[in-house]
């Protein structure tokens, strides 16, 4: 979660509480939402003047998802999100492993099974799993301790945990999961951060990938996903090599305060740098985490991110859908929710979710406060 703030970090218990609270705002209503424009269009209203038109090329259906929580409840919410989007197919299921103990990182089969069942229920779906590289992953350990752990890891000290995780994923029925390993490694929050010892960090990543790829039946893809921007270290200095990376991801939140989208594109290690780096290395891109943050209900940011992803199609993109970042489960961002829904609603050429026809009279699951605007 946003690295430059402590607020929305990766602990599963925080996600559960936040998403559960937001989920209470979701209600079922009949009929299409009033004022939904033709697919692929929308408006931005930021309070500074008249609403401005927004047009975005429809995103590939294969890449659309959201983080809605870590458990079976979140799996069920995926179909409700599809209905809110007018039947647009949500094909990415995304969750996180907790990082408190090594037993968490080994992947509890009870956590994995509901996601595996969802993945197998329809063709074209993907399961994306964020995997911490260290236990006590948010314990704020000092750099010296992180450096010691990274060197132990680079020597093979933790290989067995990732071998177990790989077996659990294969046995659960998701041998083709996309694994967002050691995300936001260029920052300061996580014990799996890179800056204290980049050579050991890269050697450790390689060990994990080689260990997991050696498990029979696996077809994993590994996503290298830093924070947007320089943060504690330029993320290219942590890149472990083309042979052990399949996707170049980026977590991109609307921060810091006052930063324009153009600055997010142009900044060192920003959005353009990601696209250029991926092209040089012949990799697909992804946005495992994106959403609102420091600038409040900033519909302009949501519109621009969707436009950016239409121009540079990712393998997948998953908005972080709880407060303060989200649009469907977060009451405090109604303008952004409206733009997100308008741009992605019932997109032409997109396979509709099972049982959700197009046109008036569709049964929708929508936050009532969006329809009340």
How would you explain this protein's 3D organization?
- The protein has one domain (12-371): Alpha-Beta Barrel (TIM Barrel), CATH 3.20.20.
- The chain has twelve helices and 13 strands.
- It has helices spanning 12-23, 72-84, 102-105, 109-120, 143-154, 159-172, 198-213, 261-266, 271-280, 299-311, 334-344, 368-371, and strands spanning 26-30, 41-44, 52-55, 64-67, 92-96, 126-131, 178-181, 221-224, 247-249, 252-253, 284-291, 317-320, 363-367.
- The strands form three sheets. It has an eight-stranded parallel beta barrel, surrounded by four helices. A two-stranded antiparallel ribbon has the order 1-13. It has a two-stranded antiparallel sheet with strand order 2-3.
- 50% of the residues are buried.
What's the CATH class, please?
Alpha Beta
Number of domains: 1
CATH topology: TIM Barrel
Kindly state the mean pLDDT as a whole number? 83
Number of helices: 12
Spatial strand order of the main sheet: 4-5-6-7-8-9-11-12
Choose one word for the global shape. Answer: globular
């Amino acid at each position: 979660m946003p690295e430059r703030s402590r607020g929305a970090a990766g602990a599963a218990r925080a996600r559960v509480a936040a998403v559960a609270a937001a989920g209470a705002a979701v209600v079922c209503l009949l009929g299409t939402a009033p004022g939904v424009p033709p697919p692929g269009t929308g408006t931005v209203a930021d309070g500074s003047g008249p609403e401005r038109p927004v047009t975005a090329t429809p995103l590939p259906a294969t890449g659309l998802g959201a983080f809605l929580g870590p458990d079976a409840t979140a799996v069920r919410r995926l179909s409700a999100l599809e209905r809110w989007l007018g039947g647009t197919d949500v094909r990415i299921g995304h969750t996180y492993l907790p990082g408190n103990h090594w037993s968490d990182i080994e992947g509890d089969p009870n956590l994995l099974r509901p996601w595996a069942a969802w993945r197998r229920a329809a063709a074209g779906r993907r399961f994306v799993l964020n995997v911490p590289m260290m236990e006590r992953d948010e314990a704020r350990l000092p750099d010296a301790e992180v450096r010691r752990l990274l060197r132990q890891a680079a020597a093979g000290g933790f290989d067995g945990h990732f071998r177990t995780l790989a077996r659990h994923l294969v046995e659960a029925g998701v041998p083709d999961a996309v694994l967002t390993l050691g995300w936001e490694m260029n920052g300061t929050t996580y014990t799996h951060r890179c800056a204290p010892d980049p050579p050991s960090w890269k050697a450790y990543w390689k060990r994990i990938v080689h260990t997991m790829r050696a498990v029979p039946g696996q077809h994993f893809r590994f996503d290298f996903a830093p924070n947007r921007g320089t943060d504690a270290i330029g993320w290219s200095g942590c890149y472990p090599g083309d042979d052990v990376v399949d996707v170049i991801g980026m977590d991109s939140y609307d921060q810091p305060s006052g930063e324009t989208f153009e600055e997010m594109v142009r900044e060192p290690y920003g959005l353009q740098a990601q696209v250029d780096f991926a092209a040089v290395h012949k990799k697909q891109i992804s946005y495992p985490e994106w959403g609102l943050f420091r600038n409040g209900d900033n519909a302009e940011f949501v519109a621009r991110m969707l436009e950016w992803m239409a121009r540079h199609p990712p393998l997948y993109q998953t908005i972080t859908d709880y407060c303060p970042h989200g649009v469907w489960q977060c009451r405090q961002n109604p303008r952004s929710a409206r733009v997100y829904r308008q741009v992605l609603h019932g997109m032409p050429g997109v396979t509709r979710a099972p049982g959700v026809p197009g046109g008036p009279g569709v049964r929708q699951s929508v936050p009532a406060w969006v329809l009340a605007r």
